[in-house]
Each structure stands twice: as structure tokens, then as C-alpha cells.
Specification:
- The protein has 297 residues and is mostly helical.
- It folds into two domains: 55 residues; 218 residues, MetI-like fold (Orthogonal Bundle), CATH 1.10.3720.
- Helices cover 74% and strands 0% of the residues.
- The protein is built from 14 helices and no strands.
- The protein is flat.
- The N and C termini lie far apart (71 Å).
- The C terminus is likely disordered.
Length: 297
């Protein structure tokens, strides 16, 4: 009798256990496939940077071999020394850093003030004015280069730092990004501060800005990357190596008929290091700014 009851229990429980085991195996299999896909995507994204670093450490003969090799046979830093001799690399790095930092700070200041006005200060026509201002994003930057260059020439700012910095100090995208973040700020806090006699400046500086860190960090990274990698405008407005930025200097390494790619890759490594450093230092705010404050409103 006991054997018969035990057999019945086994008959009822075995299919259930098998289904549970199958579901668990499918879940583990899906997880493994997801991780494999993520690892493959990460390797696909990182490989160009590894190839760039590897090429920057190769001699000229290794770069032009018919069978490409990832790891250099005899790694050397001679390419970096050659770049340092070709042009004043430290001066050019200083120029790029100065221009990128100045443009980033200017965009943060002006974009934050304009975004606060559009988001928290009611005035007639604010919506229409914001739409018109935002529509400037549809104008290609190449279209504005000629009138900007004529303006810089008339002001005598060609081949100057102010000519490099001021045209990039204002950003419609920055205003849009910060406005969306400021709109998510609770209105009750602002009303309570107004009852205590707080002005718009007090609300802006002491309430809104301190809680908008992710959006500000996102705009910082994007503005710095754009200013650091800018090529066309610095190419137009600079003449001397003393005022030249890094992307323009790297373009001089490419010859008309032949190009020493090991030197170009060494320069590219120097160009990408500050951006990677900035992103790693602000990455915990970067995604938050894009997914929360930048998408609300």
C-alpha cells in the first residue's frame, strides 16, 4: 500500500519538477546568451580603441604589413616623440584644453540661465520663443561658418582665443536638456521659497541647480566632447601653431600621397585620453541625466 502511494506521488510530482527544472534551465540559458551578446558588443566597441593604441606603438614597417597584427612585435614610444618634434604638442594640448573648458563652462552658464527662464519664469510668448530657438538645431553648422567668419574678421578675432571660444558658448541643445530637467523640479518647493522671500536668483542657485547634477554632468560631458573634437571651425579661424587646437594639428600629419598611420594613431591616443577621463569621472551622472531629467517635461 505504501509502495503504491509512493508511486502515485512520484507520478504527480515528477512532471512538475521536470517543468520547473526546464524553466530554470531556459532562464539560465537566456541569461548566458544575454551576457555573451553584451560581451561581444563590448569587444566590438572597444576593439577600434585597442587597434588605435596598438598602431601607435608600432614602427612604420609593421603598419604596412599585408597581414595585420594586433600586438606590435617591438612596442615603441618613438611615434609620440616624433609628434612632439613635429609641432609644439604641449602648447596645442593646452590650447585644446583651454578652448574646450571655456566653451563647456560658458554653455553650462548660459544654458542653465536660459533654461531656468523658459522653465520657471512665466512670460508672454515663452513657448513660441523656445520653439524658435530650438528650431536652430535644424540649421547645419556648416551653413553658419561663413557669416561667423565674416563677423570674426570684422571684430579682429581671427586667430584669437575669443574667436575660437565665443561662437561655441551658446547651445540650443543645452537649453533644451536643462529645461526638461528644471521642469521636473517640484513647484511646491519653489512656492514655499517664494513665501519666504526668495527671489528667482535664490531659487535658481540654491534649489534648482543643486538637484540638477545629472543633467549638468551630461551637458558637461557632451559639451566638452564637442568642443574638444571640433575641427571645421578651428580650421577656419586659426592660422598659427601657437593658437591651433589638437584636431587641426593632427590633420597636418596626413600627407597628400602617403600617411604615416602610426603617427596619426599616436596623436589620436593623445586626443581621446581627456575625453575618456572626463567620461569615467562623470559616468554615474551621465546615464541619469539622459534617462531622467533630459526626458521629462
Amino acid at each position: 500500500m505504501q509502495a503504491e502511494n509512493h508511486g502515485r506521488r512520484m507520478a504527480f510530482t515528477t512532471p512538475r519538477n521536470q517543468a520547473s527544472s526546464l524553466a530554470s534551465s531556459l532562464k539560465i540559458g537566456r541569461t548566458v546568451l544575454v551576457y555573451l551578446a553584451l560581451i561581444a558588443a563590448a569587444l566590438f566597441a572597444v576593439f577600434p580603441f585597442l587597434w588605435m593604441l596598438s598602431t601607435s606603438l608600432k614602427a612604420a614597417g609593421e603598419v604596412t604589413t599585408t597581414s595585420p597584427v594586433l600586438l606590435p612585435a617591438n612596442p615603441t614610444l618613438a611615434n609620440y616623440a616624433t609628434i612632439a618634434d613635429a609641432f609644439p604638442v604641449w602648447r596645442i594640448l593646452f590650447n585644446s584644453l583651454l578652448v574646450a573648458v571655456a566653451i563647456t563652462l560658458a554653455q553650462l552658464l548660459f544654458s542653465a540661465m536660459a533654461a531656468f527662464a523658459f522653465a520657471r519664469i512665466p512670460f508672454r510668448g515663452s513657448g513660441l520663443l523656445f520653439v524658435i530657438y530650438l528650431a536652430t538645431l535644424m540649421i547645419p553648422s556648416q551653413v553658419t561658418i561663413t557669416p561667423l567668419f565674416i563677423l570674426m574678421t570684422g571684430l579682429g578675432w581671427v586667430n584669437t582665443y575669443q574667436g575660437l571660444i565665443l561662437p561655441g558658448a551658446f547651445s540650443a541643445f543645452g537649453v533644451f536638456l536643462l529645461r526638461q530637467s528644471f521642469l521636473s523640479f517640484p513647484k511646491e518647493y519653489e512656492e514655499a521659497a517664494n513665501l519666504d522671500g526668495a527671489t528667482y536668483w535664490t531659487v535658481f542657485l540654491r534649489l534648482v541647480l543643486p538637484v540638477s547634477g545629472p543633467a549638468l554632468a551630461t551637458l558637461t560631458v557632451l559639451s566638452f566632447m564637442s568642443a574638444w573634437n571640433s575641427f571645421l571651425w578651428p580650421l577656419f579661424v586659426t592660422r598659427d601653431a601657437d593658437i591651433m587646437t589638437l584636431p587641426v594639428a593632427l590633420a597636418t600629419l596626413q600627407g597628400r600621397w602617403t600617411t604615416q598611420w602610426n603617427l596619426v594613431m599616436a596623436g589620436a591616443v593623445l586626443a581621446v585620453l581627456p575625453i575618456i577621463t572626463l567620461y569615467l569621472s562623470a559616468q554615474r551622472y551621465f546615464v541619469q541625466g539622459l534617462t531622467s531629467g533630459g526626458l521629462k517635461g
